[in-house]
Amino acid sequence: xxxxxxxxxxxxxxxxxxxxxxxxxxxxxxxxxxxxxxxxxxxxxxxxxxxxxxxxxxxxxxxxxxxxxxxxxxxxxxxxxxxxxxxxxxxxxxxxxxxxxxxxxxxxxxxxxxxxxxxxxxxxxxxxxxxxxxxxxxxxxxxxxxxxxxxxxxxxxxxxxxxxxxxxxxxxxx
Length: 174
What we know:
The protein has 2 domains: 1-78; 82-173, Alpha-Beta Plaits (2-Layer Sandwich), CATH 3.30.70.60. It contains 3 helices and 4 strands. The chain has helices at 2-78, 86-98, 132-143, and strands at residues 105-112, 120-130, 149-159, 162-173. Strands 1-2-4-3 form a 4-stranded antiparallel beta sheet, with helices on one face. It is rod-shaped, with a radius of gyration of 40 Å.
């Protein structure tokens, strides 16, 4: 009887241990899978939030582009035609005279044609001799002209008590 009890006890204990071990293994596997799924969901949520932000930004850009389109026409009308750039040269001469430098040297350089997205531009170079203050005033007045310009370099060199100003830049056209 004791032997039968012992067999049943060991059999039941073995079965209980096997079931507990199987349950423990299942819990470990499921917790790893749950952790993986939680990480995947968190990543998907981050990606969804990022995509949502991109959609909002795109909508804002579309709205702003419509506003910018109305100003593009105004800006385009403010730029001179390429054929009108000879007037810019006359403006430079006039500003030189007003600044007390006389007629400055002026040359047009290379040209970049306008595109649908960007205005065209022509490089230019200006040289003037005179007093430092007058050359500097001339450069400042050139920046304030009604033409859209980008001044790329400005050098003043002193020689024998006189100053020589050299200015380079770009003037834009439509």
